[in-house]
Amino acid sequence: MPLSLQAAELIAIVVQSVLYGIAILLISITLWALTLDRKERHVSPVILVGLCTLAVLSTLHLVADGMYIYRGFISFEGSTLYFLDHTKFTFKNTVYFLEPLLADSILIYRCYIVWQNLLVIALPIVFWLGTIVTGAHTVWSIARPIPVGQENGQDSIFAHQTEAWVISFYSIALATNISATLILATKLWIGHKNAVRYLSSSNTQHTLKSSIYPIFVVILECGAFYSFALIAMMAVYLRHSTAAYLVNDMIGQIIPITFSIVLVRAALVRYENKEHSSSIPLSGFAARAFVPAKPFSGVSTGGTIPLTFRGRSSSGDPILTENKENEASAV
After folding, report:
1. Where do the segments described as Disordered lie (predicted)?
2. Could you list the residue range(s) of the whole structural domain that residue 120 is in?
3. How distant, in Å, are the alpha carbons of 9, 100, 181, 268, 291 from that of 106?
4. pLDDT of 202 above 80
């Protein structure tokens, strides 16, 4: 039995509310982690503004959806025609359109910070611009009133012309996320391997992992999670299933969740690094993973960062931490 539009909207608002609670909790923890024990150091304005903006957008998304559901079931008594009139949630769609744009732009910014090369991020930038074009047209096409004579109870969001733009938007958003995530993860992996190679030369009895490694893993996991959500959205949408409303609302809260998880993990690594440290000559790629820093030529030269060894039975865990210069601009 297919899921009715009214049922899909009700389930969507419940699931979205749960995810919103998780998102706000993670955002609060992230803000606390970013601002705790800063003293003379400064929080990166790009990260802080981006995080707060995502919190506002996710809140607006939930509020707009809640008002839409309330009017549909209270004022219009669950009328199918009301829920088929997509002109009523143009604001919600606009907010949803802005969320991936903001999150992807910060992800691309991180790629530039670690690579310091515009050519490396050229492809994600092209995809990001494509997301702007297709997303703006998608919002406009869905917001158009249903032409007279076509109000036959069919959902206009699955109309042929609208469908082409919706799929284009999600496809390009997926390409943007995958390309930027891989570019960032590649740099972190190179830094991790160089650190392990350096440390292994003087510590052959332990299995070594740098503090970059857990950040590398969480970036891949969050990128994969968001990508799977986009793929699921395209799958249900192409089947013209009302479950698309549910997945769409979930993505609106998944974006701030994945964004916050990466920052929380990076903050945990930084605080772990404060336990014990001693300086060795290595490049500053760890500190530059998420923060603005001076241009550097590569991971094999320049810079000095503290290093900490922690024994864990048969394995060791080298922790790379920021130097004083990079701490001033850390996220």
Report:
1. 308-331
2. 5-195+215-273
3. 31, 10, 11, 20, 11
4. no
